Amino acid sequence: MATKAPEAPPKRPPAVILAGGRSSRMGRPKAGLVLHGRTILDHIVERLAPQVGSIALNLNADAGIDLPPGLPVLADTLPGYFGPLAGVLTAMRHAAEVAPHAAHVLTVATDTPFFPDDLVGRLSSVPDLEGKIAAAWSAGEMHPLFALWPVAIADDLEAWIRTDAKLRVRAFIARHPSAAVDFPMIATKAGPLDPFFNINTPEQLREAEAWLQRLKDPKP
Ligand SMILES: Nc1nc2c(ncn2[C@@H]2O[C@H](COP(=O)(O)OP(=O)(O)OP(=O)(O)O)[C@@H](O)[C@H]2O)c(=O)[nH]1
Ligand SMILES: [Mg+2]
């Protein structure tokens, strides 16, 4: 009797951490922010590593910290601070080089320390994922930088960045087949925490520190 070959486990995608912005509201590079004595970048790498095949960091200026050893640093392939989509394009170009068979590349933002530890598992379980952008949502909002992007649309993205005036991530996603993947709030003693809470200002950094403390406190 013929035995069915076991299905190969799904390949983990290459990932790029987006930290290529100017951090102007924070006033210093966001990748180097310290939360509970460790850089936010360390928190992000730790959460990401078990979920992906490789990690690189998209950065356009000195982050002001010692970077984790062995982490490739990628400046935007289209220099000029064209916004987050320039980071996504850089991620796609990088994936085509380091993982030529990967259909998608994952992006995450460096300023969002509580993102789900099942981010990749759930984004990749979208039916008929091939050719689609799978983006995370929570509380009725899209988090378009937490997404799996088809590497095959890199040229389209580059043309869009070169010609579109507004460079909105959501507008680019709307041009392509996409899927929304909803993530629940994290329950804490102080109420629900959005896993995509992101840090733009010094005040939000203090808020994130308080949330981290609540997450570490044992439940009553
Ligand atoms: N590669 C690249 N990434 C960018 C650019 N602008 C923003 N980003 C990234 O996009 C994500 C969301 O951007 P923001 O939260 O506004 O971060 P930011 O632009 O550094 O901060 P502000 O200057 O305060 O707006 C962050 O991960 C940024 O690093 C850019 O011009 N190039
Ligand atoms: Mg910005």
From TrEMBL:
Residue positions binding Mg(2+): D111
Cleavable signal peptide: none
Catalytic class of the enzyme: transferase
Keywords per UniProt: Cytoplasm, GTP-binding, Magnesium, Metal-binding, Molybdenum cofactor biosynthesis, Nucleotide-binding, Nucleotidyltransferase, Transferase
This enzyme's EC code(s): 2.7.7.77
Region feature Disordered, mapped onto this chain: 1-22
Record Pfam families: NTP_transf_3 (PF12804)
Domain MobA-like NTP transferase: 15-176
Presence of the UniProt keyword Ubl conjugation in the record: no
Residues holding GTP: L18, A19, G20, K30, N58, D76, D111
Protein's UniProt keywords contain Zinc: no
Sample GO molecular function, one term: molybdenum cofactor guanylyltransferase activity
Catalytic activity: Mo-molybdopterin + GTP + H(+) = Mo-molybdopterin guanine dinucleotide + diphosphate
Subunit description: Monomer.
Family: Belongs to the MobA family.
Domain notes: The N-terminal domain determines nucleotide recognition and specific binding, while the C-terminal domain determines the specific binding to the target protein.
The name this protein goes by in its record: Molybdenum cofactor guanylyltransferase
Gene source species: Sinorhizobium garamanticum
